[in-house]
Amino acid sequence: MNMITRCPSCATMFKVVPDQLRISEGWVRCGHCGDVFDARLYLKDPVSPEPSRSPGPAVSPGEQPDPAQVAALSVPTGTATAAPSSRADTPASRPAPAAPDIDFADWGNAQPAARVEPAPVAARAAVASAPAIASAGVEETADVSFVRQARQREFWRRRSVRLGMVLSAVLLFAGLFLQIALQERDRLASQWPGLRPGLDALCAPIGCVVRPWRRIDSVVIDASAFSRLRSDIYRLTVGVRNVSAFAVAAPAVELTLTDLQDRAVIRKVIDSTQLGWATEFPAATEKSVSLTLAVDPPPGTVIGGYRVVVFYP
């Protein structure tokens, strides 16, 4: 049984059959505007054509009509008359019913952009014998490109899919924020001290620790001195200043003694605890320290100079 569907884009009416909709799962392409839609959502009542009846000459029950007159009335104008046959009431000799005009007035206010014509007998036979889609602009196979694209668009338009995408984006953003917070926890605690309790609570389950911010370019040496007190006793004086606007970790000091050819002879590292400094330098703070060191150079080596640098071990 043929059914009628309407294109939602241009209101064009098309004739479809259940086998066509079953093969393509309802998806068709409009042959007028090219829009792809689900024909099952826009089905109309099937149209059953009624053969038109032309009024003929009135014949009384007792009067027998002339066979020649009956033959002349039954043959349409412009067609060849068949030869006389003993079987006058055969299907070939019967007049074909006229195709009815379809009234679109009962189908809504949309005006049809194309006239629906009944499919020829040969086309209906081809559809019945082979599972191919041949009307309403549908391709000959079910796995066609516009059907796949329509299914994909329909999938991404679902409310559940969009809600899942939003929730996934929120979770990914939260995970990224937590990762950045853990990676930059020392800097965040130094620049925004109010965040330190939250960062400590965040680190507690995974065993990380919030330490002073290590930023060595913010720590500079203002002055240094290295003098000899006795043959093996020297005094080191170092002044260090934090030039940034945030608290940073206290650095260690590396002392390198050189000979007369400026070659390194002795290298010694002095950490912040040996220097008597706290673990953290407040912002814009200057500290100075003086240490007495025992130096035992290799035999035959004369201490000719020194170098002092600060670093984070």
Task: Report a brief summary of the structure.
With 313 residues, the chain is of the alpha+beta class. It has eight helices and 13 strands.
Uncertain regions spanning at least 5 consecutive residues: 49-142
Number of domains: 3
Write down the Rg.
49 Å
- Give the end-to-end Cα distance, rounded to a whole number of Å: 86 Å
Largest sheet: 3 strands, antiparallel
Class from secondary-structure proportions: alpha+beta
Q: Shape, please?
A: rod-shaped
Give the mean pLDDT.
Answer: 73
Set out the fold topology.
Blueprint lengths: L2 E4 L6 E4 L1 H7 L2 E3 L6 E3 L4 E2 L22 H8 L46 H9 L15 H12 L2 H25 L1 H7 L4 H8 L15 E10 L4 E10 L5 E2 L2 E7 L5 E7 L1 H4 L4 E2 L4 E9 L10 E7 L2
Antiparallel strand pairs: 1-2, 1-5, 3-4, 6-7, 7-12, 8-11, 9-10, 9-13
Describe this structure in words.
This protein is of the alpha+beta class and 313 residues long. It contains eight helices and 13 strands. Strands 2-1-5 form a three-stranded antiparallel β-sheet. The longest helix is centred in the middle third of the chain and has 25 residues, at 159-183.
List keywords for this structure.
alpha+beta; three-stranded antiparallel sheet; single chain; Immunoglobulin-like; 313 residues; 13 strands; 22% strand; 8 helices
